[in-house]
Structure formats: C-alpha cells, structure tokens
Amino acid sequence: xxxxxxxxxxxxxxxxxxxxxxxxxxxxxxxxxxxxxxxxxxxxxxxxxxxxxxxxxxxxxxxxxxxxxxxxxxxxxxxxxxxxxxxxxxxxxxxxxxxxxxxxxxxxxxxxxxxxxxxxxxxxxxxxxxxxxxxxxxxxxxxxxxxxxxxxxxxxxxxxxxxxxxxxxxxxxxxxxxxxxxxxxxxxxxxxxx
Amino acid sequence: xxxxxxxxxxxxxxxxxxxxxxxxxxxxxxxxxxxxxxxxxxxxxxxxxxxxxxxxxxxxxxxxxxxxxxxxxxxxxxxxxxxxxxxxxxxxxxxxxxxxxxxxxxxxxxxxxxxxxxxxxxxxxxxxxxxxxxxxxxxxxxxxxxxxxxxxxxxxxxxxxxxxxxxxxxxxxxxxxxxxxxxxxxxxxxxxxxxxxxxxxxxxxxxxxxxxxxxxxxxxxxxxxxxxxxxxxxxxxxxxxxxxxxxxxxxxxxxxxxxxxxxxxxxxxxxxxxxxxxxxxxxxxxxxxxxxxxxxxxxxxxxxxxxxxxxxxxxxxxxxxxxxxxxxxxxxxxxxxxxxxxxxxxxxxxxxxxxxxxxxxxxxxxxxxxxxxxxxxxxxxxxxxxxxxxxxxxxxxxxxxxxxxxxxxxxxxxxxxxxxxxxxxxxxxxxxxxxxxxxxxxxxxxxxxxxxxxxxxxxxxxxxxxxxxxxxxxxxxxxxxxxxxxxxxxxxxxxxxxxxxxxxxxxxxxxxxxxxxxxxxxxxxxxxxxxxxxxxxxxxxxxxxxxxxxxxxxxxxxxxxx
Amino acid sequence: xxxxxxxxxxxxxxxxxxxxxxxxxxxxxxxxxxxxxxxxxxxxxxxxxxxxxxxxxxxxxxxxxxxxxxxxxxxxxxxxxxxxxxxxxxxxxxxxxxxxxxxxxxxxxxxxxxxxxxxxxxxxxxxxxxxxxxxxxxxxxxxxxxxxxxxxxxxxxxxxxxxxxxxxxxxxxxxxxxxxxxxxxxxxxxxxxxxxxxxxxxxxxxxxxxxxxxxxxxxxxxxxxxxxxxxxxxxxxxxxxxxxxxxxxxxxxxxxxxxxx
Lengths: 194, 562, 261
Ligand SMILES: Nc1ncnc2c1ncn2[C@@H]1O[C@H](COP(=O)(O)OP(=O)(O)OP(=O)(O)O)[C@@H](O)[C@H]1O
Ligand SMILES: Nc1ncnc2c1ncn2[C@@H]1O[C@H](COP(=O)(O)OP(=O)(O)OP(=O)(O)O)[C@@H](O)[C@H]1O
Ligand SMILES: [Mg+2]
Ligand SMILES: [Mg+2]
What we know:
The structure holds three protein chains of three kinds.
Chain A: H1 9-40, H2 44-48, H3 54-63, H4 68-82, H5 90-108, H6 116-138, H7 145-177, H8 184-193
Helix pairs in contact in A: 1-3, 1-4, 3-4, 3-7, 4-5, 5-6, 6-7
Chain B: H1 6-10, E1 14-22, E2 31-38, E3 43-47, H2 54-60, H3 64-67, E4 72-79, E5 82-83, E6 96-99, H4 103-106, H5 112-122, H6 127-141, H7 157-169, E7 175-179, H8 187-197, E8 205-209, E9 222-226, E10 232-236, H9 238-244, H10 246-252, H11 258-268, H12 280-285, H13 294-310, E11 324-333, E12 342-350, E13 354-359, H14 365-372, E14 380-385, E15 389-391, H15 404-411, H16 418-431, H17 447-459, E16 466-470, H18 478-493, E17 497-501, H19 505-511, E18 514-519, E19 522-528, H20 529-533, H21 536-541, H22 550-561
Parallel strand pairs in B: 3-8, 3-9, 6-7, 7-8, 13-17, 13-18, 15-16, 16-17
Antiparallel strand pairs in B: 1-2, 1-4, 4-5, 9-10, 11-12, 11-14, 18-19
Helix pairs in contact in B: 5-6, 5-7, 6-7, 11-13, 13-22, 15-17, 17-18
Chain C: H1 7-23, H2 27-44, H3 49-72, H4 77-84, H5 93-117, H6 120-130, H7 135-166, H8 176-203, H9 222-246
Helix pairs in contact in C: 1-5, 1-9, 2-5, 2-9, 3-5, 4-5, 6-7, 7-8
Bound molecules: adenosine-5'-triphosphate (ATP) (2 copies) and magnesium ion (MG) (2 copies).
C-alpha cells in the first residue's frame, strides 16, 4: 500500500474494473426494480435505491483514498451508458451526485475510518444527496408532506442497508478471497490483528 | 538504448548485494541474504526448489516488489550501476525486459498485435519502426499472422506463453529476465525458444529461472542455486555444479539435466566422461562405438542400460478387458465460446490406466481433456461414464475458497467424518510439501505451490474414478514431480483411470503405457507410448520431440550392430 | 464501412442521438430513431436483423417496465406522468408510457450501434490522441472494457471447478441462486486481474509522464465529415418535424424516471 494520497496504477485499475463489474450488476438491479415497481408501485424506487450506491462504498472501503467513492460511482454510470443504459447521459449527473454524497461522509473522517457505522452513514449520505437531487428534478415540493417523509426515510434506510451494510458484507467476503492482499484494507486489518 | 553506458563502468548488468525480502506479516524472510551479479553478455540460470524465492528475487529487480507488491526489501539492488530505488519500476522498461512466471501476469489482456507493440509504444518509437519490430518478433517466436487481431484471452495456455515471450523479446533490452519461459510449450517450440532466449550477444545479459533444463542448460554460462531457505547453495558453471553437487541437488529436490544421471552411472562403472556432460550425446561421446576402444564401450554398456531402464514404462499396463470408465464416441469438442476444433473423436479410458495425451500447442488437448472428464458439454457425439476430476492447466482455476486448508477440505467427499477430514488434510499437506501454509490464501503461493495444492485437492480422495491432469508438471521441482508420480501410481493401483496431458516426454514414457497424439483436428495416433515415441515422422508432425533416453537407446543399437 | 469511421465521430453522433432521444418526448420521433439506426446497421454494417432483435430484448424488457407501470397504475397517473415530466403534452398515461418504452429501445439501439461498430481499443486510442486522455486512465478504461467479455469465460471456469467439487452437473444456463453465488468470485477475479494488469503495464514501461506513440490511432477522414453531417441533419430534421407537429409546445427536458447510477 502506498501511503500517499495519490492513486497507484493498481488502484486506478481496480476502481475502473469495479466500475465495470458494478455497472453490469446495476443494470441487473434495474430489472429487479422494474419488476418490484410493477407490483408495489412507484415508492419502490426509494426502497431499492440503496443498491445503486454500493460501488462507491465498496471501492472506498477497499482503497481508502480521497476521491475513490466519487470516481467509482461516476465511472459506473459511464460504463452503464456505454453498456447501453436507457437512462441516458443524465446518469452521469446522478452518479456524480450519489458519489459525492458518499464521498462527503468519508471526507468527514478525513479518509481514515471505514468501519461499518461509517459505511452505513456513507450510504445515508448518498441517499440524502440523491433525495435532494430528485427533489429538484421532479419537483417533490408538490407532493404531500406525509409521502415525502416516508420516501425520505425509506431512501435513507435503503442507503444504509442496501448500500452501506450490503457493501460491508461484500467487502468482507472479498477480503476472505484474498484478492485484496496488499491494498489499504488488508494493511488496516492485519495491523489491527498484529 | 542498446546498452547503458554505465554498465561499462561498474561492470554489472544487474547486481543484488546482501538482499533480503520479507513479505508483510510473514514470520521469516523468503529470500536472503543473497548476493548475485550478472555481467553484460552473461547468461545466468537461477535454479532452486519450489518456494525458494526465485520469482520474488526477480520481482525485486526493477522494484516491483516493494513498490507494487508490498514487501520489505533490504540490501542494495543495482541495474547497470544505478540503484534501482532511484527510479520508478516503469522507468526501467527500456533496459530490462521481464517475462513473469505466468503468461497471464505478463500480458495485459489486449489483442495480440497491441500486446506485442505495447512496450515499444511506451518508448515513443516511430510507428513504422514499431510495426517492423512487431513483425520481426512474431516471426522469430513463431506467432502466426492470423493471431494479430485475437484477444489474448482466447488463446490456449502455450499460445499465450508464446505471445508473452514475443511481447518481451521485442523490447530488445540489454537485460532479459525470464521466469519459467517454456513451462507450457510443446517440445519443439520449447527448444526453439530456448535457443532464441539464450542467443549469445555481448550486449545482452540473460537471467532465467527454469525447471526445464533440457535444451537450455548448454547455453548457460553460470548458474546460481538457491536453497529452501532462500540463500545461495551453490554457484558456478553448470558442468561443475551438476557433477560436484549432484547429491546436494537431489536431496533438495532440484532438477538436474537427464545427462547427470547417465554421468553418475558411467562414473559408477568407472568410465566417467572427461568433462561433466550436459546432454546425453555429450555423455556418450567418449564411448562412441565407432571410435573408442571396445573395452571402454563394453564397460559403458551396463551403465547405459541401467540409465535407459530408468525411463522404461514403470506402471503396469492395463489389464486386458478392464472395464471402460469413460468414453467419448464420435465427439466434437469446442472450447467454451470457441469454435469446434476436434471432430469425430473416439476415445476410451479404462480402469487402472494411465493415458498420455500429447500434441502441439493449441492442438486441443485441454479441450479434449475437459470433454473427457465430462465437464465441458460436447458439440456433437456422446460421452459415457461417471463425471471426472480435472486439474486445470492454470492452477488458479482450481481454487474456489479462501485458504489452503479449506481448499482441500472442500474437495473431500461429504460423507467423510469431520475428525477424519482434519487427518486427511494434514496428510495431504505433508505429502505435497505444503505443511505450514494451511492458513495462506491459495493465490499468494508460489507457482509451484499453487500447482501442488491443485493436485493435492484432486488426489486427496477417491471420489473421481476418472482424473484428467492438464500439464501437472509445469512449474514443479524434481521433488514435486516424484510426489506426483507416486500419487498417480497409487491412484492407478486403486483402479482409477488417469489421463495426463504433458509436454514432458520422459515423464510420459515412465508413467503411461498407452498414449494418444492430438493434432490436425483429431487424434493423430493412439498406441503404446514407446512405439509412438520412436515414430520420428509422427513426432515431427505433431511438434513433439524424442525423449531424452532415445539417444542412449540408439547408442545401444549401434553398439549391438558393431 | 461504419467500422472504418473514427470512433470519436460515432461517439459524437451517438451522444447527440441519445440527447435528442431524451429531450424530444415524442413517440414518432423515437420510432424514427429506432428505424433509421437499425436500418443503417443492417444496410451498412451487415448486422444480421436477428442479432439486432435479440440485442433489443433487454431494452424492450426495460421499456416494458415503464409501459406496465403507466398502465397498471392509472389511478396514480398523476404521479406517473408527472414523473414522466410530460404532463403538458399528454394527460394520457398510456401514450406517455409508450413513449418511454420507445425511448428505452431507441437509446438501446443507439448504444448497440456504437458497440457493434466500434472497437474499444480504437476508441481508447482515439481518445488518447485526439482528446489528450492520459495513458494511465486510457489503459485503465481499456482494461475494464476488456474485462467484461472475459467475465463470462471466467464464470464458466468457476462453475466447472465447483461442479467438480460438488459432484453436480453444470446447467447450461445458471439459475438466479447460482448467479448470486458467482458475484463475489467474479469481483475477486476482477480485482486480481486489475492488480496483475497494473503490474504488466508497469513492467513494460507505461509511464504517467512523457510522450508515447499510439499505433493505429484512427484519424479523421472525409467520410467522417460526411457521416457526421448526414447523421446530424437526419436527427435535426426529425426533431424539427416532431416539434412542429406538436405545435411548438416544448416538451420539458425532464427525464421520465429516476435513473439509477
Ligand atoms: N504475495 C505474497 N505474499 C506472501 N507470501 C508470498 C507472496 N508471494 C510468494 N510468497 C511466498 O514466498 C515464498 C517464495 O515464493 P516465490 O514465488 O518467490 O517462489 P519460487 O522460488 O518462485 O517458487 P516456484 O518455483 O514454485 O515458482 C513462497 O513460500 C510463497 O508462498
Ligand atoms: N474462446 C476461444 N475462441 C477462439 N478460439 C479459442 C478459444 N479458446 C480456445 N481457442 C482455440 O482452441 C484451440 C485449442 O485450445 P486448447 O486450450 O485446447 O489447446 P491445448 O492443446 O491445450 O494447447 P496448450 O498446449 O497450449 O495448452 C487453440 O488453438 C485456441 O486458440
Ligand atoms: Mg516462481
Ligand atoms: Mg492446454
């Protein structure tokens, strides 16, 4: 692990590669969302939203450097556009907003703390940012306050669980495969034991 | 860029001085302290048992270990008189061309022509010049034009190795470093590449790690032998080492050239060659039946016979009428997402049989093996028999869980009791020389350790009646291969059927009573291994070579006819 | 011949096409986009129409989601159409849903057009030469793009190894549970491969500074200019026709749904 803030080539490659794999997973999740939406109605979006924050959380928890969360989410959006997501180019903006939401939380710990509570908070951060963004885009002000609050709470929960907690599980599982050897997370974990 | 002017001042192309390496959180050093120096134009071979730190040592050369792979390195490493640490690893690419142990580690996953041109592009050479050099490298290494646009991930193991070698040779760097460059090449291709890699050139130094010595060792100026603890055991000219340190090398499980054994036999008979021989021809040149005295020749005969007997088929031939355990009938085989490459294959493997499978690189051996074990669906035709086990050509493909111990546990059948399982694991680890590594991640092992682990998962239980081993000896030291032979013969004794895909003709001759040769989209020959090996036309057609003992056999024939 | 065009000119046209498809909320416009793009592919790139249809299946499924939501949730039609951002144009939920459906297919068609006619290596090279993309970023993106097709064969290897250990036969198409269980190994594979590629790139001298040659970088030719002018005119004409037909009412540039990122 390099202790500098700049990314090594390996880290750059890992972020892009994670972006590519998560783009595929995100597109799969869109199908899940659509099916759920057809059954449960439009609020489903808030329930499933958290999964779309996961790339930034996983990448950040592995690499632990400034900018990783943001870049991972934007890259995932870019790859999705390349893979043909029908959401179009605005996906980049969405990705940037969500990535920024997670990044802000990591920045608040000065990119030092990546424990589960921080990951959960990062998920909520992304949820709040994305909520503000959709508020502006879709003029949520016109909705009933009750629905709005419900939507907000659902989205934050989703961000914490599907984003933060699931992200944490994925990172732990990845760690057990040994693929993360030599990365920041490996260093942190082994020093914690030693 | 041909040679760094500084090399003339300090005299060394590469130099390790009192170097030690320790991986993070490991309890002991893997290397060192080691001091090695490579002079300009010198060709040095680094030899040592599996896990002795050879690959690690090579990775420290341009600073990849410690810069990109975390480890603590102490001591001085200099390239052409410049301390390595003063530059980033990428800045050495013009001086040092590196072929890593695994072709996949050397390649970046691009198309073949991009892959070969990549290093030259990085040096900002003019496009026309790059195109010419790429063409030249492809011709020299033997990469066909038709591969240019193919992504390297669709090539077979050996084909990938060829491309990776072309991509490093094209750099034409004053120091060429190669870690087991021919492990997956068919005999003829391996010979050609060995000659190419070790071409004498006063402006080019070569540092090679290899377990496969035939055809290479003659071109080596000096060798350095590492021991299990990562320190230097012996150093000097191959001729002196292989004669003087023969017993030490054998006890450490390090490969010696085949001729060394003949040398020992002749010495025993009191007719040792004047200089330690590196090839069988050399070993017998002083007892040429046409030139030497009859007395000398007569004394040599029992020694040569004993040597040849070492290479005779050792395992019992299959009992006549033994039941068929797996059979392909009129099968068409295609690699996953690839075109059909083998057509109309009829092949049966019997209880208690060890079957050899040979062929040129890309002939379709791995594909055939996967089909034979029932793991790859056929394009046409049918397979009968129970599903088999398969040892992948890339040992990494075998690994599905996180630690060495779990990997073996996972391969045990479910009905084994929990207490017995621990015992099985411990004995498998001991057999394969992996004790002490049980908590490690399989991917962090050395290449030979990975191979042994993969083989251990297959041989630890009796659950697969049919086993297919795809190039099981690639990357193994002599000790590993003798373990493999023992295990295979034990499985054979218990009635398993084993097919072994290999480029090692000597091993095949000892193990396999029957063999097939794959090529030209089908099975070229099927019969007793000894017969196939004496059919020179067939061997040439299939890119194979005679086993090392062939020369000794011919010598015996000539003696008999004199 | 579409393959011979500069990837950047195709990228430009495709981006304009995607933007137009998002902005012009009109079913007919989308249909024209789909037909023109599809026809160009079949006529000029000799893409088999069957392949094209097969590639459109996921986009149709995706689009169908919008259609069914707007049909099934009529009572919410206020919400749904507002979400669709085109309440001004049509209060009819179905036509909004239909347009969304067609838009999904149109965007899919444009993306497929780009994917089928462009070699990712050529795109990265073009970006490095004409857009000064730093080589380290360029090759990182390149590695990511090369990885996606290899995931399939790697997953297959993994399935073989597992089938061997569990003793169960491999199904031709993996079920949902099996796909889920492959996610972590595939991520691990991707990360390993990234590390390995980084080492390989570095060992062969990919430097963050200094000049480097880019071989086979696509150049701009006259055919690129013709292609860009022709394609943009077609899009502009269709767009103008759609607008004038609507009667000058600007469709709001709001997107129909919240897109996941
Ligand atoms: N990244 C790593 N982290 C920790 N330990 C490692 C790592 N790579 C290798 N090792 C260990 O260091 C030792 C030396 O490994 P190395 O790969 O250098 O051996 P080698 O001599 O090349 O063996 P082989 O002939 O099998 O390739 C081995 O015991 C191996 O398990
Ligand atoms: N996905 C693919 N697409 C196209 N061709 C492929 C693909 N996979 C393999 N091939 C080709 O199939 C042939 C057979 O491959 P296979 O791995 O069976 O060869 P092999 O005999 O095992 O070679 P080696 O000795 O090099 O391991 C090779 O020529 C290879 O180039
Ligand atoms: Mg090694
Ligand atoms: Mg093979």
